[in-house]
Amino acid sequence: MHKEHRATPPLTAPDEVVVFIGRIRTPWLTRADCPRNVLRAREAGGSARVEIDPVYRPGLANLSAYSHVILLYWMDEAERDLLVQRPSHADGPRGVFSIRSPARPNPIALSVARVLSLNESTGLLEVEQLDCRDNTALIDVKPYLPTIDSVPGATADR
Amino acid sequence: MHKEHRATPPLTAPDEVVVFIGRIRTPWLTRADCPRNVLRAREAGGSARVEIDPVYRPGLANLSAYSHVILLYWMDEAERDLLVQRPSHADGPRGVFSIRSPARPNPIALSVARVLSLNESTGLLEVEQLDCRDNTALIDVKPYLPTIDSVPGATADR
After folding, report:
1. If you count residue pairs, one on A and one on B, with CB atoms under 8 Å apart, how many are there?
2. What is the chain B residue with the closest CA to A54?
3. B125 and which of A137, B49, B50, B133 could share a cystine (Cβ 3.0–4.6 Å)?
4. Reduced to 3 states, what is the DSSP secondary structure of residue A148?
5. pLDDT at B158
6. Contacts of B110 in chain A (CB under 8 A)
7. Neighbouring-strand partners of residue B124
8. Domains of chain B: total
9. Residue B72 sits in a domain of what CATH number?
10. What is the pTM of this model?
11. Over the stretch B52-93, which tens digit does the pLDDT of each residue have?
12. What angle do CA B143, A72, B130 make, to 5 degrees?
């Protein structure tokens, strides 16, 4: 497979809806400002502020028992039909399911992040720095469970 | 917080759409048959078969370089407005963002799974056993990257 590949026909059929439960505030005001990945974002320093909308704040109860969370967020500027891409970090084309590009059939990004502070009543969750644009829509917060989520010996092609 | 809590008003406002990119085939034919969690599912043995729809199969290129994947799937039978729940494994109510219940504002489940086999042309990805119902809709496959996804020392309240 030697070039990028777009799905045919365009992937526009809606199947289900996601709701936005809050916003992620970062120092990166536009997509062009964003660090290339989350490791670069952490090197830049600072922290990201996750703002949970009022209606969803009761769901933060008990989260303080966890050191890390999994955040799912919606990359609203990403293309959704690019199934084979040429990432800048790679030496050739890559299938979308083998990379973490925000451009994917469902533009859902996933980051594991250390929790720095949590205020259940104001809905503010401060985490280590993220690589997404300021005001990125949040769709889920999950507790990170090392027994099922951590695989230190997993092999990866980079 | 001493009882379950539902969001008010009902969370029905659509924000964005997700598309289904395939199905997960498991031995559990109904929700009632499903193991309580993914560790129980693995104890039951066997494997889960992820079937990627034809249009999305080009996206599987290069995935064979990874030993593990992150699967996101849509729990279509789950309630979406239950922000505080009483899980059977806990001694009291829990905020939805502190548990991995499928019932959440966006009913997206996440599992890290070892890849057992992959056939890019038939779109079949066999992984270690999962705890979801047969024919659960798949919404994403991501490569598992231990440098950012593995936190063996994360602390968890259970």
Report:
1. 266
2. B7
3. B50
4. helix
5. 46
6. 70, 72, 110, 142
7. B51, B119
8. 1
9. 2.40.30.70
10. 0.91
11. 999 999 999 999 999 999 999 999 889 999 999 999 888 899
12. 55
* A130 pLDDT more than 80: yes
Contact B144 A137 (CB under 8 A): no
Interface confidence, given as ipTM, is: 0.91
Looking at the DSSP bridge assignments, the partners of residue B89 are: none
Instruction: Determine, yes or no, domain membership for B101.
Output: yes
Contact A155 B67 (CB under 8 A): yes
Report pLDDT for B4. 76
User: Which residue of A50, A98, A116 to mutate against B (max B Cβ within 10 Å)?
Assistant: A98
CB A96, CB A157: distance < 8 Å = no
Give residue B93's domain range: 17-146
Please report whether residue B140 resides in a domain.
Answer: yes
Query: Would you list the DSSP string of A63-124?
Result: GGG-SEEEEEEE-TTS-S-EEEE--TTSSS-EEGGGS--S-SSS-EEEEEEEEEEEETTTTE
Q: What is the mean pLDDT of residues B118-131?
A: 97
The torsion angles phi and psi of A108, rounded to 5 degrees, stand at -100, 120
